[in-house]
Automatic annotation (TrEMBL):
The Acyl-CoA dehydrogenase/oxidase C-terminal domain, residue ranges: 182-301
Protein name, as recorded: Acyl-CoA dehydrogenase-like protein
Top-level taxon of origin: Bacteria
Entries under PANTHER family matching the protein: ACYL-COA DEHYDROGENASE (PTHR43884), ACYL-COA DEHYDROGENASE FADE28 (PTHR43884:SF20)
Family named by the database record: Belongs to the acyl-CoA dehydrogenase family.
Keyword Flavoprotein listed: yes
Keywords associated with the record: FAD, Flavoprotein, Oxidoreductase
Keyword Transcription listed: no
Single GO term (MF): acyl-CoA dehydrogenase activity
Cofactor(s) listed: FAD
InterPro entries, alphabetized: AcylCo_DH-like_C, AcylCo_DH/oxidase_C, AcylCoA_DH/ox_N_sf, AcylCoA_DH/oxidase_NM_dom_sf
Length: 332
């Protein structure tokens, strides 16, 4: 991806999405102004083809932008919106304004979607219905918070059929794409907690010197760095260099591994920060809370590890050949 995209996006988020803004939106303030600032700059359409007035990036090209959303704790589903707007027919994009999220699951018998990421701040929801997907307006939906402090996830309930648009996307494709994008969001949050942990270890003094000088702290930070960088590598397995449809096994490996390391990484960050890291006033919780929420979104690690294991057992290739063929098809 050309650096011009990520540099401009980082500057934009640094100016409009500071920790105070994130906290106000989590507390219930409307996010319209923040969304308008981002959408007016064109970042919601980076996956849309250039022939349709988008940037024409692949998912691999957009990966740094999606990770930046996690790194800045962006309280909006911009990453999911990028995907949905790319799938939308060109004629329908003008009618679908505002942030769009993807519902991991929807009741087959009721107009209800449980535990929707960013459900509290989304104007539209991509819903998986039988053999197809639909885009539902959230205008008339009742939003029930998930009960977790400052969470933007919510259960959405419609009491009558909402405005909807059928999409040329299968539920399986939506689930896989949601998992891949969530893994990328998590890598951004992981990078942020690593930076915060290193900075705190150099700033906090104990026994007359920074705690980062102590071998035990250095060892923990080394493990954290290893987890963060390996998570970034794993997330890229889900990103095709052309188009925006993640490969199934690549997305499974990405979401499975990143979810697996998220809990350990958050634990190390909090251990190094000590008691101050769990206070509401400290910014660390903005990222570790998201890591735990995203870990369960679109399937936790056990679900995706089972997916990979079942695919391997269904064939007769060795584990190495399966990995090469499924995760690195170009080298198989």
């Amino acid at each position: 991806m050309d650096d011009i995209f990520i540099d401009a996006f980082e500057r934009l988020l640094a100016g409009v999405c500071d920790a105070a803004t994130v906290r106000r939106i989590e507390a219930g303030e409307q996010a319209g102004a923040l969304w308008d600032a981002i959408a007016s700059a064109g970042f919601a359409d980076v996956l849309v083809p250039e022939s349709e007035d988008g940037a024409g990036l692949s998912l691999l090209g957009a990966a740094p932008l999606i990770a930046a959303c996690g790194r800045h704790a962006l309280p909006l589903p911009l990453a999911y919106t990028m995907l949905v707007r790319a799938v939308l027919p060109a004629s329908a994009r003008a009618d679908v304004q505002g942030p769009v999220t993807i519902a991991p699951q929807c009741s087959a018998t009721a107009l209800r979607c449980d535990n929707v990421p960013f459900g509290a701040v989304s104007d539209w929801v991509l819903v998986q219905r039988d053999a197809h997907c639909e885009l539902w307006s959230a205008d008339s939906a009742t939003r029930a918070p998930d009960g977790i402090h400052a969470s933007l996830d919510a259960t959405l309930i419609w009491h009558e059929a909402p405005r909807s648009l059928r999409l040329d996307l299968t539920p399986e494709s939506a689930r896989v794409a949601g998992a891949a994008i969530t893994a990328l969001l998590m890598t951004g949050a992981l990078e942020k907690i690593l930076d915060m942990t290193i900075a705190w270890a150099n700033e906090r003094t104990q026994f007359g010197r920074p705690i980062g000088k102590f071998q035990a702290i250095q060892q923990q930070i080394s493990v954290l760095a290893e987890l963060v960088f390996s998570a970034r590598m794993a997330a890229n397995l889900a990103c095709p260099a052309s188009g925006f449809a993640p490969p199934l096994q690549g997305a499974a490996a990405a979401k499975g591994y990143v979810s697996q390391v998220a809990s350990q990484a958050a634990g190390i960050a909090h251990a190094v920060h000590g008691a101050i890291g769990i206070t509401t006033e400290h910014d660390l919780n903005l990222y570790t809370r998201r890591l735990h929420a995203w870990r369960r979104a679109f399937g936790a690690e056990s679900q995706w590890h089972e997916q990979i294991g079942a695919a391997w057992l269904a064939g007769d290739a060795s584990a190495l050949d399966f990995m090469r063929g499924a995760l690195y098809p170009a080298s198989a």
